[in-house]
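Lecture 7 notes: from sequence to structure.
We start with the chain below.
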Amino acid sequence: MLEIVAEVIAAVVVSIVIAYVGGRYRALPWAVLLVGVVAASDATPSAIAYFGTTAIYPNDAFAYILIMSALPNLAVLLRRRGIVVSALLVSALLLGIEVVRGVMVYTTPSSLVEFRPFAYAIASLVWMGSIDWSDSRMRREVRGWLLLASVGLLVVATIHLATTGLASSSDFYIDETGIYRSLRPLLGDQACILVAGVLVAAWTWLDSRKGRWLWLTGALALVAVLAQQRSAWIALIVGLVVVIFGVDQQQRSRLLQLGLVTGFIVFCVVLSGVADAVMEQISQSIDAAFGAGSTLIDRTDGWSELVGRAIDPARADWLFGAPFGTGYARIGPNGLLETYSPHNFYVQLFLRSGVLGLLAYLVAVITAISRLWRGRTAPLEVALAAIALTFCIAYGLQWYVAPILGVALFLAPRKLRIEDGAVLLSRRREKRSIKSSVSDGATQSGRSA
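Predicted structure tokens for the same chain:
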């Protein structure tokens, strides 16, 4: 009994310290996110502590730090109103209901284990929502974190390539637990952060015109190619398209010039034959992703089976979702049973929160992004959100990827509250003034006539 009391007291003291430090100094939660993305691994995690008989894993601790860091600024989160926050709350509420149902229907561990990835992403978004985004420094903090994380991943990937060599997407090894692990230098979620860093580095070069940012952009882009995470490639292309259409004419011309120069350099390298081995690996990765019997076909077959089972009219899962702990069992391409997550956040969200939860999430995302896009003052943040949303078609919403989506969700949930908002408001007032002047002029002309 005394041991339990001591554990509770220790947990309360640690929580208070984390809440104070994390709420007062944003460096703590940013550091947690940085460590999470750089140290991420697909190996089975080991428990770092126990609370009673409950094992605590690294991601549990990271998510807990983010939640506690948000508590001192809870007033900011509670003041948020509008469609974006309301829709997110509806989706989260439906997930919470399915957690409770899962605990009642299945064993507690199985339902909570399946909920963990959602809980981690929610923790990240809660912390992002507790930030006052009217402070213009926050956007620079996000960009700085992405650059630091990208450089960290650049080092991790370089070390891996130097020690293991270049591996294709079809190269695996079997770990001590008998599970197949990829030999690629970065995980898919890490590659997503890396390509987001490519976009931020290129944006910084556009603003500063300093050569070091151009070199960093090239280095990050090269590692992103060598990482051979095809979903990250597609996400980067989507992000670049958003940036190109979102910037002004002068910046667009610079980007196109950079693209032409990069294309010419790549063409010369390929023509020289120096990168034949690399090009062969990339070609194999593309074929493995989109060719006959490819990863894409295998995954879409799995998605179709899971969704088809969920929309069975005899069940109500299609509307509210199935309880956590139900699992994702389906028949794989070799006729074997697959039970791991379906590698599609939208499918996962539909399976656990139903049509209502998925629609609520999409309403929140589309509303937030459309408002920022109409404002034309945050094209980089819209592009980063586009990267995350595109990437989630092939993966879940990893907790350290969620912040690049959270920026767009909370930057302007009700009205434009960003550093360039005053400019936009002045433009709107100017337009109204012009319309009023034209109307008054027409009235006076009518009276004169």
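Points to note: Strands lie at 49-51, 54-56, 172-174, 180-182, 330-331, 337-338. The chain has three domains: 1-77, 78-414, 419-449.
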